[in-house]
Write a structure and sequence with these properties.
This protein has about 350 residues and is an alpha+beta fold. The chain has eight helices and eleven strands. The strands form two sheets. It has a six-stranded mixed sheet. It has a five-stranded antiparallel sheet with strand order 8-7-11-10-9.
Length: about 350
């Protein structure tokens, strides 16, 4: 059974409700769990949890929101659509992004990839008892002391600890009383999430979760590097290249590969980062990559606007770089089968 399970990773978005409803899933969910995205959207993610783990998973959902967690990882079982395949042991990542939880689900298998995932996560929780092998053993300190890379300097990307969560970052969790209903939640964190096309050298923006940092109608369909200042572009490109190389499974297929953390300067107005004669990857491949994501995007006026005018931005002249058009951001990068997940927040 384990050898037949695809080593893939799909991206998910879940709401803040007690039911933890799926709002969005990328297509690799069908490879891992057998469901098409349309079959799960609107349903409770808790329906797939193993009955023995239901209460703990629900508590974990609540704690993720309440503690404003980021780059948190959990090992738990999720139900496959095929009843003969039972429950699949999965690695589930979670980051609070404003009013939703953004993350990923991948097949959990021991080895170097699992070590990479657990050693770069800010928190690791093992829900399934048989998955204790994935529990990271620290060197007498549950909070790793590592420097925080700054992509505005020549230093490249590192998997060091970024202070994305203002709450406790302990990797071990004690027993907590069962919740009956959600208490009032804290104010929403000022974060945005982007999904980038990992198969394009320009990392085209396929999805933007909100307008807190970048205008959704302006960013969709454009190169992500259009919104990175020219002085930090090369460092960000290098970081994304590392994340892409991490996000490859033992079969050479695109998958998950842990978290990368960094800082860089975001250009709010955007610019044209491509040379006049520079060519992107073949159009058919770009269309295929866009289709895998855009076909599953929640319908919204913003997405509709993108589809009708997303290609017109290239004709605009580059914007001037002034201080009011730039903002320093903290970033979490992670690679997955269907794209690169990027979480941003204004630098404190």
């Amino acid at each position: 059974m384990e050898s037949e399970t695809p080593r893939v990773s799909f991206i998910t978005i879940i709401d803040f409700s007690e039911d933890a409803r799926w709002l969005f899933l990328t297509e690799s969910v069908s490879d891992l769990l057998g469901f098409e995205p349309r079959e799960l959207i609107g349903r409770s993610a808790l329906e797939l949890a193993h009955p023995d783990e239901f209460s703990q998973v629900k508590q974990m959902h609540y704690d993720t929101i309440r503690e404003d967690k980021a780059a948190a990882l959990a090992y738990l079982r999720l139900k496959h659509k095929d009843p003969f395949k039972g429950y699949i042991l999965c690695a589930v990542s979670r980051t609070v992004v404003h009013s939703v939880i953004v993350g990923s689900v991948s097949f959990a298998v021991p080895g170097g990839k699992a070590l990479q995932n657990t050693s770069t996560a800010r928190e690791v929780e093992v829900v399934t008892p048989s998955a204790k092998i994935f529990e990271l053993k620290g060197w007498g300190d549950s909070s790793p002391m590592m420097s925080n890379p700054d992509l505005t300097s020549p230093a490249g990307c590192s998997s060091s600890d970024m202070d994305m969560s203002e709450a406790s970052s302990s990797r071990s969790r004690g027993k907590k009383p069962m919740i009956i209903s959600f208490n009032p939640l804290p104010s929403r964190s000022p974060r945005s999430a982007l999904i980038l096309d990992r198969f394009s050298i320009h990392c085209t923006v396929l999805y933007c979760s909100n307008d807190l940092l970048l205008s959704t109608t302006k960013v969709l369909g454009r190169s992500f590097f259009d919104f990175v200042t020219s002085r930090t572009e090369q460092s960000v490109r290098s970081c994304i290249d590392v994340i892409k190389s991490w996000g490859v499974n033992d079969r050479g297929q695109p998958s998950d590969g842990g978290f990368g953390f960094g800082k860089f300067v975001l250009l709010l107005a955007g610019r044209d980062s491509r040379g006049e004669n520079e060519q992107d990857v073949p159009l058919s491949r770009r269309q295929l990559g866009d289709a895998r994501i855009n076909r599953r995007m929640p319908s919204s006026p913003r997405c509709a606007s993108h589809s009708s005018s997303g290609t017109s931005f290239r004709s605009r002249p580059p914007s001037s770089s002034t201080s009011d058009q730039e903002i320093s951001v903290d970033a979490i990068f992670s690679g997955h089968s269907d794209g690169i997940l990027l979480v941003l927040r204004p630098k404190a």
